[in-house]
Structure formats: structure tokens, C-alpha cells
Amino acid sequence: MTEKMNQITKEAIKSARACLEQGLLAEAFSHLAVGVKIDSRLVRDAEALEGRYFYMLRFLSSNNDVPDLQQILQAVYKEFDNILSRLEMAVIADEDQGLLGAQLRYMALRPEETLESLVSDYLAELEAVRADTAALTDTTRRSRLERLASDIFMRIWAELPKIDDSAGLVESLLIDETVPVYDRALWTAAIGLVNLQHFTVERARMLARVYAGADNNRLAVAALVWNVIAINYNLPEFEPGQFNEVKTDIFPEHDPADIGAAVTELARSLGTEDFARKFKETIEPELRDLGRAVSEKFSNIDPEKADEMLMDPEWLGSDMGTKGFDSLKSFTEAQQSGADVFMTSLGKMRMFPFFNNMSNWFLPFHTANSALAPVVDGEGAAIADTVSSIPMICDSDKYALLLSLAATPESLRAKAMEAMTAQIYNASQMPGYQEAFGSGTNSDRRTLVTSYVHNLYRFFTQFHKGKEFPDPLAAEPTIDLFADFINFEDCKENIASGRHIVCVEALCCCFCMVSGIGGRPQARQRTSS
């Protein structure tokens, strides 16, 4: 289409919507007829809808009674709005050279593929994978299922307002406990991303229902965080009445403690860049020195005296100095308060093809992902399980960590895995390990909220197409919006204090592991700076 045609179409859409708001449906059809000329399928659908409408008017003018007149009119308005949404997407597909335009053009090439057909294919493939015993040891057999999950995410996001037509299907999928929770949380993020860009109270209500009925904390947190940030970001553009609808219909469905956690992390994210810079300049260098020293001590332990020596504080502190332990204390305190302590290292490790796929930035970490096959299908399964249970590392950082190990040359990978396995085993024998790393995949919500916001920060700042999206984490929390549901004084306190009482030895091991110290391949040094 030419630029002139697109401009005419956009003006026709604007005029048609204005007429709809005033109830001037006949005039709206005249504007629609101008706009749909760019697409023969839209011309057909618009003419069919107009024919139905004017047939109904002729029927009424002949003194015939139509018992369901209001319902019929509502259906006409809904279909009219649907055609306008499709028309808007056609213009975007022609004009937009970014991610959305590319996805819409891809979808146009496959008209037979719909959200409904993708869900049907996904459910069939899910059953096939569950029946495939070989998939237990060969995660690559799950690749088609993962592609379908990603396609569903992209279609939910790219269809924008049109997704309201399939809201029932999407919501039933999100509350289906037979579907893996990581995929349901992924699709919840798609709904949240749509509502960030094109907010409606209806979609916010859907997320509130998902939150209230969630069978897993990961799913509940995804719905919670997206509702908080999308509402907070779009508040200046709210229409009259939307503010009250949110306060009376949406937030009362959420636990005030959960809202408080989300608002706290939203506020804290505003200082992530400054904290990351200070952390990299002051704390991280000393932690690396301490980590190397601890790693050397671990490697020299006599196996027969290991338990006794690891319990001896004099041995642990000997020849270590105090500077490193002061930095370790600062690291621990920052981590306990929810600070993004890994932003400068793992947060920048996004060179892998895995992160070229937008949906993977929102995918909760799980060890069955086919991208991790070089690690989890072999001797690295224990490493993957341990990484999965570390609560202070967000999901995309966990993928980055294991993908860096998978990318290691095979000749070095075995030694790296051996070293990391030894570190994990040593740490697992220490007091405090289970308390530090034993939260598992369904951690407490406060911990998960912190991790989820860190994950979103990665997407909006590190994704190569991230600038195409509005950044909700750059918007300060609106006091008037949240004041009735949380105590702002409590949010100022370190409400995360004491969540992870991490013993020195276990934390040192964790830092060694995520930094790659002790068997770190040369290829990883470049990515963890």
C-alpha cells in the first residue's frame, strides 16, 4: 500500500470509531467502506455486516418485532469493532518494520492458522510428549511443543485488541492444571504485554481472575505483576471511570501484601542502573577475589576431614582477609533486600539465539527445555536442578547461565561440569544450604515477585527489540492508585529482610558458580563482565 492509502485508511478508522461512540452506526459504515478497500477479505466482511444491519432496519420499519434487538445490536457493534481492529493490524503490517509488523505479515501468510488451531495442536502435542518415554532423557523431542507454545504467545500478543474475541479460550487455557505451569505463565505474560500496550479493564479482570484461581505461585505472580505495571503505566490515559473500576473491581481481588511487593519492586527497579554501576565498581571485584580464594580452599580439602574443616570458622577465615568478607556482607544485604545483584554479570549474557525469540524472555525456567539439552541430558542434570532452585537468580539469568555452559566446547564442558558439580556438592553439605537454595520451583510469592520484576527489567533493557515497547519499569508508582491497598511506610522498609539467611560458604559457592570461577571456559569470560 502507498503512504497515501494508509493515511486515508487511518482517517477512516478514526472517523468510524468516533461515529460508533456517538451511536451513528449508519455513518460509521460509510467510513468503514472507505477504509476496507485495502483488503478484499475485509471488504467482504464489512459488506456482509452492513447487509445484516440494514436488513434488520428494513425488518423493523415494516412494524416487525425483534425480541432480541439489544443483543443483536451489541453483536453488530462487536463485529464492527473487530473489523476495525483487523483493519488497524493491516495498516501496521504494511507500515511497521519492527517486530509487530513482521509478526503480522507472517500471520497473513498463514490464514489457515488461528489461535484456536494452535491451541488444538499444542494440546495434541502435549499428550504425545507425555506418552513418549524417550522424551524423559531426550529433551530435544519437546522442541515442537515449545515452538507451539511460543506461537501461541506471539499470536496472543500480535492480535492486540482482537484477542478479546478469544478471551474465553485463553482464560480456560490459563487455569487448566493439566497444562504445564511454565507455559501458562508464558501466555499470561502475553496478555499482560497486550494490556500494557492496549489497556482494557476487561483484560485486567481476566488477569485478576487468573491470579485469584492460580494453582501455582509462579502463575499468580505473573498475573499480579503485569496487572500492577500495566495499570500503573496506563493510568494517565485512563478514560473517565476506569480509575474507579480498577480500584473497585481489580485490586480488591489481590492480596494487599502481594500488591505491596509488586509496587516495592516497581519502585526499586528505578534504581537498578545506578546500583548495578556501583556494584560493578566496588563490590564485585572484591567478591571475585574472595570467590577464588574460597574455591581454592574447597579444592584442597581432605575428603576425610571435609565436614570438620567446613564447620571450623577459623579455617574458613584464615588467609582470607576482611575486605572480601565485608563485600560479601554487602552482597548478602543487597540480595536480601531484593536488589538486582546479578544485573552486571548474568543480566548481560544474552548473546545466545535462544534470546532472539521474544517469548523466551518471559518463559519460567524449567530444566526440560530443549535448548538446555547439552547440559540436562547428560552429567549436568544435577547442575540444572540446583540452578533451578536458586531463588535469587531470575529465570532468564538461569537460562543464560546454563546456555553458556552448553555453548562451551565439548572438550572443556566435562571439566566445567565436574568442577561445578563438586562446588554444588560441597555447598549442599554446609549448614544453611537448604534454607538458601531449597525454595524450589513454587517459591514464596515475595521472592518470586522480586525475581519476576528482575526478569522484566532484562527484557525491556536487554532485548534487541526492547525499544519497540513502552518501558513500564521507568514509571514511578502512583500513590493515589495504590494507597487504599498497601502501606507505603511498610514498602519503604526492607520487607524482604530475612527471606534468605544465606551462610557464607553457600553464598560464596553460588557466586563462584554463577561467575564461572573454578573451571570457567575462556568463552564465558567475555560475557560475564
Descriptive notes:
The longest helix is centred in the middle third of the chain and has 28 residues, at 272-299. Helix 1 runs antiparallel to helix 4 (69-95) and helix 9 runs parallel beside helix 11 (217-234). The protein has 27 helices and no strands. The chain is elongated, with a radius of gyration of 27 Å. The chain has helices at 3-21, 25-35, 40-61, 69-95, 99-108, 115-131, 143-158, 167-174, 181-197, 201-213, 217-234, 242-250, 256-269, 272-299, 306-310, 313-317, 323-336, 373-376, 381-389, 395-406, 410-428, 433-437, 445-462, 479-482, 488-492, 504-515, 522-525. The protein has 529 residues and is mainly alpha-helical.
* Helix amount: 55-70%
Shape assignment: elongated
Rg calculated over all Cα atoms: 27 Å
Individual helix count:
27
Average pLDDT works out at: 78
- As residue ranges, the low-confidence spans are 493-529
Order of helices and strands: HHHHHHHHHHHHHHHHHHHHHHHHHHH
Largest sheet: none
List the helices and strands and how they pair.
Blueprint: H1 3-21, H2 25-35, H3 40-61, H4 69-95, H5 99-108, H6 115-131, H7 143-158, H8 167-174, H9 181-197, H10 201-213, H11 217-234, H12 242-250, H13 256-269, H14 272-299, H15 306-310, H16 313-317, H17 323-336, H18 373-376, H19 381-389, H20 395-406, H21 410-428, H22 433-437, H23 445-462, H24 479-482, H25 488-492, H26 504-515, H27 522-525
Helix pairs in contact: 1-2, 1-4, 3-4, 4-5, 6-7, 7-9, 9-10, 9-11, 10-11, 10-12, 11-13, 11-23, 13-23, 14-17, 14-26, 21-26
